Amino acid sequence: MPPEPLRRTPVPTGPGLAFEQALWQNGDFWVAGVDEAGRGAWAGPVFAGAVILPATEEISTLLAGVNDSKLLTPLQREKYATLIHGIASSWGVGQASVEEINTLGIVPATHLAMKRALQALKLHPTHILVDFIHLYDIDLPQTSIIHGDGISLSIAAASILAKTARDASMQELDGIIPGYEFARHKGYGTVLHQRCLEKKGPSPAHRIHYRPIANLLQNNPVSPKP
């Protein structure tokens, strides 16, 4: 179905339920917020979260402090992820692998991770709220919201689940492919990550079409080092 136009809404001090409440009033009680984590990283999978919150205003109080995952500390994200798991009517997490990112490209791979997060829900959503993008291959009513993770409580909750799941995955990857400090920088383009790449070259966990990695492979065309 054709996408709704992106909603440009002033970013409030914290995410609320304005979009959710409008849908609840129309009988859409299973509204799923969807967001991704790791789209801009140089290495590792991309993750997505999907969260359906109970259709009640008190959820704002129960989830007070939940916000865009990028604005929270790791300890806060872990705390809120546990809270969301217990309070949400349904939640799901999906991912797309580095191999899928390298084959499909990051945008289709991100959509795939979001689709898998939605498929992991135990409830079938009646409407989707998505941070910024539109999922063209999902045949469900949906609204794309610019800065959605700072506006919609459902999207903010999804961003936390996606981020905590991806961080755990990168910590695990650090033990599988040592020497790149994945547990510290989580695959993003930090100075530490750049130094590791200069020393060891790209690994099988790196996204070969991202410019910094592609440049390294072009200048030193050897197989990625394990």
Structure, described:
The protein is α/β, with parallel strands linked by helices. The protein has a domain at 18-174: Ribonuclease H-like superfamily/Ribonuclease H (Nucleotidyltransferase, domain 5, 2-Layer Sandwich), CATH 3.30.420.10. Helix content is 42%, strand content 13%. The chain is built from nine helices and five strands; from the N terminus they run αββααβααββαααα. Strands 3-2-1-4-5 form a five-stranded mixed β-sheet. Helix 3 (74-87) packs across helix 6 and helix 4 (98-104) packs across helix 5 (106-119). The radius of gyration is 18 Å and the shape is elongated. The chain starts with 17 loop residues before the first helix and ends in a 7-residue tail after the last helix. The model is unreliable at 221-226 (pLDDT under 50).
Q: In short, what is this structure?
A:
The protein contains nine helices and five strands, in the order H-E-E-H-H-E-H-H-E-E-H-H-H-H. The chain has 226 residues and is an alpha/beta fold.
List keywords for this structure.
5-stranded mixed beta sheet; 13% strand; 226 residues; disordered C terminus; 42% helix; Nucleotidyltransferase, domain 5; alpha/beta; 9 helices; 5 strands
Class of secondary structure makeup? alpha/beta
The CATH homologous superfamily of the domain at 18-174 is named Ribonuclease H-like superfamily/Ribonuclease H
Strand line-up of the largest beta sheet: 3-2-1-4-5
Quick one: biggest sheet?
Answer: 5 strands, mixed
Residue ranges: pLDDT <50 for 5 or more in a row?
221-226
What general outline do the C-alpha atoms trace?
elongated
